[in-house]
Specification:
Layout (H helix, E strand, L loop, with lengths): L3 H11 L4 H8 L3 H8 L9 H14 L4 H17 L6 H9 L4 H28 L4 E5 L4 E3 L3 E8 L4 E4 L2 E3 L6 E7 L3 E10 L5 E10 L2
Helix pairs in contact: 2-3, 4-5
Length: 211
């Protein structure tokens, strides 16, 4: 049965032309011309290119364009049914969804770097950032009438706490409470929180005892 490839090849040979000769004039690469003559359209860039190449090749050889393209349409319809002539856009899209070894390695490395950065940030925070320290009571420059003064606040659960040089227990949720005895006049209260790595945060409150 006559095919587009055989028709074009016979016409080229009859004119004593080589594929290189045809390539020079039509600017169609010789490997594509050979694929057309072999009816191997799957080797061409896309169905659109295949149609254009066949049309230009036939015109260059002086063949009747209508007849050549009729053969081409009939062949490509059969080829599509056999899934020999791929749709390049679909092929490229499907490749984009494939998990290749290179992409998998890149993903694993990316996850490793992400986890490392989180770990490094956490360690940096523990090593170099001082503990938080919030004093709820007393407020700065307050005046009270009672000698016993409550000290309440929060800090990091793993921090150690000193109030005027005396150790105070920090609960598991970071809260602490203690009492001190005030002297008449202005009292300076120094609250010092120290992290496990020696970083400190200090809050000073001045409280007056009114007699």
């Amino acid at each position: 049965m006559k095919t587009v490839g055989s028709i074009l090849k016979e016409a080229r040979i009859a004119k004593k032309l080589t594929l290189a000769d045809v390539e020079k004039v039509t600017k169609i690469r010789a490997k594509f011309l050979d694929a057309i003559e072999q009816d191997a359209y799957q080797l061409l860039p896309s169905p659109i290119y295949a149609k254009g190449f066949v049309k230009n090749y036939g015109e260059y050889l002086g063949l009747e364009n209508t007849r050549v393209m009729a053969f081409f349409r009939r062949q490509t319809d059969d080829v599509k049914r056999l899934n020999i002539l791929p749709n390049k856009s679909e092929d490229i899209g499907s490749k984009g969804l494939r998990i290749t070894p290179g992409r998998f390695i890149t993903f694993v490395v990316g996850v490793f770097i992400f986890v490392f950065l989180i770990y490094f940030g956490f360690q940096y925070q523990k090593l170099y950032i001082p503990p938080t320290l919030t004093i709820t009571t007393p407020v700065q420059e307050s005046i009270v009438k009672e000698k016993k003064l409550d000290i309440l606040g929060t800090t990091n659960p793993d921090a150690t706490l000193m109030v005027n040089g005396i150790s105070v227990t920090v609960r598991s949720d970071g809260r602490f409470f203690t009492q001190i005895t005030l002297e008449p006049g202005v009292n300076t209260i120094t609250i010092l929180a120290t992290s496990r790595y020696g970083k400190t945060t200090t809050v000073v409150r001045k409280v007056g005892l009114q007699q």
